[in-house]
Design a protein that fits this description.
By secondary structure, the chain is mostly helical. The chain has a single domain, classed as Orthogonal Bundle (Cytochrome p450). The chain is built from 17 helices and ten strands. The strands form four sheets. The chain has a three-stranded antiparallel sheet, with helices on one face. Strands 2-10-9 form a three-stranded antiparallel sheet. A hairpin with a 2-residue loop joins β6 and β7. α6 packs antiparallel against α8 and α6 crosses α17.
Length: 366
């Protein structure tokens, strides 16, 4: 499903479920264990649950992932942003042509550091986590390598939980371990799976949101000037980026729990569905003839990048906070920043799950 109305309809229809048991081919054993997307299908976090199971997990996780806890991160996010901008400045100064890969030097380490601090991940484990999460979203990785990568990610997070059980801290991992609703608590399996969800999604999506926003603003200098002068808010620029180039392209998978009609199409029971969030954001039926254009003055910058309804992303507030602190400070420090000319446009990531660029070479100083 790729149109805005069809995606919205699918998100709201109770006949479309997230639990893999509804997928006829999977239940029949027809999906091999080395299928490249298998780790996205067998997951046991709240993203793959429906009904009471989803409500229970979301209620428990929400006790730990509160807006207040996220807002408490703002001063730390500002400090991280400023330190990374110092690094970009130094790197550009010693570069022969003054070019810096802004993704590697700024957009990647910002959410990685924030997520590391939020979950109490040790400094020595953060580069390893970054490597594993990047590979987790990369559909160019061979199936056997993807399986090994997921096993290593599970091992790392299991070790994190063991450490926090032994030495609790003021972090989200400890909060998830201790989250309870009377006698109900997360099982060990649920705990690890939800850490996979939060840490991987919280890192990858924010990184690509920042990269995509810089790329869009660079190619629309008049709009960048309008935002920097205060004519349009940074919040609107961020929402327009999320609409047109949101980091969540497709998120496997949803399934039809019964025979049904969706957007005028007959769908048999037991079929998998992919919902196109970024394509929904470009739908001219919703956004008019300029739907495919970046325009911060657009009246309607609403989008589905964080999904909608019962599966709305709990980390949306954190992603927005990081982008809101990062982007204005980046362009305040480097008002003449430009994407560096090269042999061609930066290559897109080898992923249909996230929408982003492999690199973003920029020249911070003209």
């Amino acid at each position: 499903m790729t149109t805005h109305d069809a995606v919205v309809e699918a998100l709201a229809d109770p006949r479309i479920q997230k639990d893999k048991r509804h997928w006829r081919a999977f239940a029949a054993g027809e999906i091999p264990p080395d299928w490249p997307l298998i780790s996205w299908i067998v997951n046991d976090n709240m993203l793959a649950k429906d009904g009471e199971d989803h409500t229970r997990l979301r209620r428990l996780v929400s006790k730990a992932f509160t807006p207040r806890r996220v807002e408490r991160l703002r001063p730390a996010v500002v400090d991280i942003v400023e330190r990374l901008l110092d690094d970009v400045e130094r790197e550009a100064a010693v570069s022969e042509d003054g070019v810096v890969d802004l993704k590697r030097s700024f957009a990647e380490p910002l959410p990685l550091t924030v997520i590391g601090d939020l979950f109490g991940l040790s400094e020595e484990d953060r580069p390893r986590m970054h490597r594993l999460v990047n590979a987790f979203f990369d559909q160019g990785v061979a199936p056997e390598e993807a399986f090994a990568i997921f096993g290593e990610l599970w091992e790392l997070l299991t070790g994190l939980v063991e450490t926090k059980r032994a030495v609790p801290g003021d972090d989200l991992t400890t909060a998830l371990i201790t989250a309870r609703d009377e006698d109900d608590a997360l099982t060990e399996n649920e705990l690890i799976w939800n850490l996979v969800l939060f840490i991987s999604a919280g890192h990858e999506t924010t990184m690509n949101l920042i990269v995509n926003a810089v790329s869009m603003l660079d190619s629309h200098r008049d709009q960048l000037a309008l935002v920097r002068e205060g004519g349009i808010s940074w919040d609107r620029a961020i929402e327009e980026t999320l609409r047109l180039a949101g980091p969540a392209a497709y998120l496997p998978m949803r399934y039809t729990a019964e025979d049904m009609e969706l957007a005028g199409i007959h769908l048999p029971k037991g079929e998998p569905l992919l919902l196109g969030y970024t394509s929904a954001g470009k739908d001219p039926e919703r956004y008019g003839p300029t739907a495919g254009e970046f325009d911060v003055t657009r009246e309607d910058t609403s989008h589905l990048s964080f999904s909608r309804g019962r599966h709305f992303c709990l980390g949306a507030g954190l992603a927005r906070l990081e982008a809101r602190e990062a982007l204005p400070r980046l362009f305040e420090r480097f008002p003449g920043l430009r994407v560096a000319p090269s042999a061609g446009a930066p290559a897109p990531m080898t992923s249909f799950i996230v929408d982003g660029l492999e690199t973003l070479p920029v020249r911070p100083r003209p």
